[in-house]
Hints:
The structure is a single chain. With 116 residues, the chain is mostly beta strands. The chain has no helices and 10 strands. The strands form 2 sheets. It has a 6-stranded mixed beta sheet with strand order 2-10-9-4-5-6, with no helix packed on it. The chain is globular and about 40 Å long.
Amino acid sequence: QVQLVESGGGLVQPGGSLRLSCASSTVIFAPYVMSWYRQTPGKQREMVAAIFSSGGTVYVDSVKGRFTISRDNAENLVYLQMNNLLTEDTGVYYCNTYDKSSQLPWGRGTQVTVSS
């Protein structure tokens, strides 16, 4: 069964940093454009960052300059480095493919809470 496992979330003060990781023992990430998504209460899940197989990246405006997505194809990992966190970054973060036609079953996500 396809499984995506997100980790690295937690409680952090505004201005703090977290590094999220996405792993899978059943899916090889290398061929895919991989993304991080965020779901906040009362809102639809939104993509916040994507990374192409070539290493090119795309970010939603609200996280540009603060978040960095990266990938380690050798280790089959996708990361999201989040700096200068804001309270509005609070939510559950998920990884998945960028292309909805190849999207995988969603993992459980990892909770990020930014609060003083």
